[in-house]
Amino acid sequence: MFFKKNTIALLFLFLILSLALMPNYFSFAENKENQVCGVYFTGVGCSHCAKTDPVVLQELFNEYPNLIIIEYEIYQQRENALLFDKYSQSCELSRSGIPMIIFNHQDVIIGDNPILNNIREKIEELENNSCLLINGDFQKFEDVNLASLPGKPKIWTKDRILIKNNQEEWVFGWKGEKVQDQYSSEINPNKVLQNLIITDNFLNIINQINYTSTSSIKAPLSGSYIDFNNAISFKVKAEPEIVLENNLDLVKVLSLALVDAINPCALAVLGLMLITILSYNPQKKRNVLLAGLAFIISVFIMYLLYGLVIIRSFEIIQSLTSIRVWLYKLLGAGAIILGIIKLKDFFKAQSVCNVVPKVNKIIARITSPAGAFIVGAFVTIFLLPCTIGPYVICGGILCPLGLLKAMPLLLLYNLIFVLPMIVMVLVIYLGLSQVKDISTWQAKNIKYLDLISGIVIIGLGVAMIFGLL
Q: Is the predicted pLDDT of residue 17 greater than 80, yes or no?
């Protein structure tokens, strides 16, 4: 009898110890029930977001412990602005703006008062809701590959936050007990990210990764911040992010660059300069090549600088106002207007380039490649009115990428822009044609170039407005 009682007691003790040694499993199982996951778009500096941020990112977690919010701030984080457009298109929203919270394709709340008045009821309706991803799929939070989330999300729940600084570095902040620096072998990085949010015993998860303790972090809201008194930074294995716009950006840049490249004014100015060089010294065709290339290089450099200024100007505008939300559609509308102007030129009795008379006296002074380079830089100012339209639209499209990421596409744009000039110089240098022949052909076909440009750019604008590109 004594032995039987001791056996039962030992079994009971073993069961208690087993439960104590498996806190992660049970806390994970408990917490993943009844989860509600929402994607929240906000902006630091948005007055409407200042009303909803404290509720969505603080108060609701006290009422709904299993609520998870994936936040994308779009005013200060350029990468996130692209995601806002993609989510809006995915949900087929007739209008969009911030603050906006998305639970699924049908359950979207836009605006401060609608969110404040309806979000609690919506959370209770959507018990055990999955996360809506950028590609339109739904996944349970524990199945979401957090390491590959695009942009720079912040993931909020209860008394903690997980922040993606870049493709590899993450910061985790929480309120409560501190941890000491401890290093051990890393486990599955994505499970680490998930469990930091889901499990109650997240301190045990922290001790399974290599991390560095940091000072407390202040997570910004619109008009205030939330202080997390403890934080760590750590790295996870880099995974390729979802490419949102790279291919589509390339299509837009190529379309706009081709429209700009067949601009008659730029070619007319180059032709006038080549005629001047040949008239000055008809025996030295080498001067045509050198002067032509010097002119083209000068135009390329100046237009590249103009492009950087345009992109930077759009960055400043977007950082000061909420125009970022509507900018893409405004650019599409601008493209349509520009295309209509091109078509209007086609139906004129005679299309002419008004730039040539203005620069005629300047170009007449060119006698050397060095002079061609200097004049090339100067005449770009006169060319801007008839070439800047597509370039401004391109700058607005590339703005969300930032100067560094936009640079390759900007270089490509300008290379395409000067490509017809390069061909023209080589054709004349090799004796395949005369400058006057090219100029005559151009004068006869200038209106058809306007027609092609108008159709292409109107099509691009329509595609941008309706989310087809």
A: no
